[in-house]
Design a protein that fits this description.
By secondary structure, this protein is of the alpha+beta class. It contains two helices and three strands. The longest helix is centred in the C-terminal third of the chain and has 26 residues. About 0% of the residues are buried.
């Protein structure tokens, strides 16, 4: 194997928003902040928790209504020209 081609690995601390701290190693040489970890993720805890999904469905429904209104206007315009 070639010598000195791999990046240097250092110890880092990973901090979750729930307050949990984990020790690991990384080549980025800095501490990490994460939003979810195994102590607070719904898959591991078995509890449902909303994570920044508020409003996504509403925005999608508004876009669909706008699209359907545009399609209906095209159909009525085409029917009026015949």
């Amino acid at each position: 194997m070639k010598e000195a081609i791999h990046p240097k690995s250092t110890d880092v601390t990973i901090k979750c928003t729930c307050g949990a701290l984990f020790k690991s190693s990384s080549t980025m040489c800095k501490d990490f902040n994460v939003e979810l970890c195994s102590k607070c993720h719904p898959f591991f805890t078995g509890k449902q928790r909303l994570v920044d999904s508020t409003g996504r469905v509403d925005r999608f429904n508004k876009r669909m209504e706008k699209f359907q209104a545009h399609q209906n206007a095209k159909k009525s315009k085409a029917a009026g020209n015949q």
